[in-house]
Specification:
The chain has ten helices and no strands. The chain is about 70% helix and about 0% strand. By secondary structure, it is an all-alpha fold. The protein starts with 14 loop residues before the first helix and ends in a 13-residue tail after the last helix. The longest helix is centred in the middle third of the chain and has 25 residues. Helix 1 crosses helix 2, helix 4 crosses helix 6 and helix 5 packs antiparallel against helix 10. It has a domain of about 140 residues.
Amino acid sequence: MAKRPQARIGRPPSSSAVETRLRIISVAAELFARQGYGIVTNKDVAAAAGISTGALYYYFSSKLEMYLAVYWTLQTRVDEAIAEAMGSQKTFDGRFRAILEVAHSLNAQEPHIAQFLGTARVDRIRHPELQDAIPSPPGEGARIMDELIEGAVETGEVIPKRRKQVEAVLQTIFVGLVDSQSDDLGRHRQAVDGLLALLDHKLLLPAKREAK
């Protein structure tokens, strides 16, 4: 399984260097999200970050290294937010609801995250160098999914023989929220509220019986 890139060993970076690196990651995330890995160039990122292309190579030796820095930064942001949300709940029902809410909150506050991660799934298929560098499914995301389902099995909310089905449904929901709804915050809210209503047995009503 691919591992997250390790930080370079060297002199401790200055605060301005750290800020510049974070700015590069931020603008690169937005460019990659809108245009994809194949189209964005180092020159594009450097211009958006307000530095020269040569200066960019001080921080990242290649576009691939920069892309992976963006990927793992955003993936870690999502993983930490989900883990914190799950930690406040004891049941599958509570954890699932908390994840839905944190997903919407992240999409409202940092919309580029969902846009980038959605684009990354396509880019990973198109570019072999990304397939080699990014695990599928992402390692930490898979761990959180396992924790969510394993906890549900322990509480009796999911029977073991349904585990794979529940996992498939959850992946469909989470990927669907990112790929088909994240570009419109209002629609994303409707999707989250619909899922919550489904959990509460309020989304669908019993079919009306025809009068005899």
